[in-house]
Here is the input.
Amino acid sequence: MMDQAEKLRQAIDNLKLKQSVNRSPMAIPQIKRAARVITVTSGKGGVGKTNISINLAIALSEQGYRVVILDADFGLANIDVLFGIVPKYTLLNVIRNEKSILEIISEGPMNTRFISGGSGVEELLKLDRQQIMKFVESIALLDKLADIIIVDTGAGLSENIISFIMAADEVLLVTTPEPTSITDAYALIKTVSNRDKSKRIRLIVNRVDSVDEANDVSNKLVLVADKFLGIKVEPTGYIMQDEAVTKAVKHQKPFALTHPKSMATRNIRDICAKLIDKNGFEDAHHSSGIRGFMNKLISFMKA
Ligand SMILES: Nc1ncnc2c1ncn2[C@@H]1O[C@H](COP(=O)(O)OP(=O)(O)OP(=O)(O)O)[C@@H](O)[C@H]1O
Ligand SMILES: [Mg+2]
Here is the structure.
């Protein structure tokens, strides 16, 4: 009979094997220290965070990166709905010491994987120091399994969401051209800038009607953030208003798979290229990985 440790080792080997099948050899990093943690967030809700998280994960996976999405929108099931998969276990089971991290990872399409946060964040706050250390050690396995971890958060300025932003290596802030969405994005940038002006915020403008409109929104936000808040916001792309998105959502499938030639998918590929361009794995060297992320997250939440 296999003991627990042996089972775990085999599970890891299986995951590695599976991943290596679909990877282009060019993309395999030579030195890999820790996963790059990217938090996807927005000021206003419903602007496209979950769609961007999932389709970006697929685009990155197509480029040979191993991606895990963490669904940190604890209010509503998000990723599950768009993947059409309901995971049996969540991060909560790991926090409660009932399951290992490998047992709560679900397989998504195109070699992506995802983890449901469940009501894990609330539970994290109840742990004592030793329990936290134990939890962080168990989740640290993700640094070995993933090159990039995408954290899909809820919208808004709640303390928990701000903690997810402050703990991440990079932030992808999503807005639409709607004035309310832009104002809420600005409010979020302001909150972040009050805590750390060196935080890396990348901006994505979703649901635009034209490239001009995207540039307009980006330029405005970059300018006011620089002038009034003294923080750098990096324009990282746009996604056109595209009915491929709504159609795919209805079928609970990522649009990058159902509509690979659509405008939205091309836009996602452009964003993906920006993320992995030049500082792709450079960033990973500076990244403190999921271990650093969780440590920071917990300390911010407890502060
Ligand atoms: N580029 C787009 N073109 C057309 N429709 C879009 C586009 N992006 C998003 N949508 C629509 O907006 C809806 C909301 O998207 P999504 O669930 O990704 O937003 P969210 O920011 O994750 O929302 P929440 O804040 O509730 O988590 C989608 O179901 C889709 O109908
Ligand atoms: Mg969402």
In short: Residues 49-50, 73, 78 surround magnesium ion (ligand 2) (CB under 6 Å). The CA atoms of residues 60 and 276 lie 8 Å apart. DSSP finds 15 helices and eight strands in the chain. The beta strands are 36-42, 67-71, 106-107, 113-116, 148-155, 170-175, 201-208, 233-240.
